[in-house]
Amino acid sequence: ETIDNLNVKPDGIYVDGTLGGAGHASEVCKLLSATGRLIGIDQDDAAIQAASERLRDYQDRTMIIRSNYCHMVPELKKRGINSRYEEYGVWITATRSLPGCSIWYTKRRQ
């Protein structure tokens, strides 16, 4: 459901604010072209390790950032990524701090 609601475009930029084991991220990566990008954010070293392993086939279109999703905008800006949310898809899914939460945002292109 989360992936369907993102309305993934092959050349889009998508940010997973709670990367975890990269389950959602890997599904998005499957839909990206060589010009699409997935940026994953997580503060947990074990999650980053698991995600790195799961996303290894998509290294050319992924970036993993060790941080908290609360710092998403400055982390993206540090890397030269436009912080205007209407230009890319963003999602944050259930975490220990947000039980039962699933938030996503994407601009639906015409």
Number of helices: 4
> Helix and strand string, N-terminal first?
HEHEHEHEE
Give a quick account of the main beta sheet: strands, pairing sense, barrel closure.
5 strands, mixed
Low-confidence segments, ≥5 residues, pLDDT <50? 94-110
Average pLDDT score: 79
Work out the helicity level: 25-40%
Query: What is the tally of beta strands?
Result: 5
Structural class: alpha/beta
Largest beta sheet: strand ordering = 3-2-1-4-5
Strand content: 15-25%
Kindly report the oligomeric state of this protein: single chain
What global shape is seen?
A: globular
Q: What distance lies between the first and last C-alpha atoms, to the nearest angstrom?
A: 21 Å
State Rg: 13 Å
Description:
This protein is of the alpha/beta class. It is 28% helix and 20% strand. The protein has a five-stranded mixed beta sheet. The chain is globular.
Q: What's the quick description here?
A:
The chain is an alpha/beta fold and 110 residues long.
Main attributes of the structure:
110 residues, alpha/beta, five-stranded mixed β-sheet, 20% strand
Layout of secondary structure:
Blueprint: H1 2-6, E1 13-16, H2 23-31, E2 37-42, H3 45-54, E3 62-66, H4 72-78, E4 89-92, E5 103-105
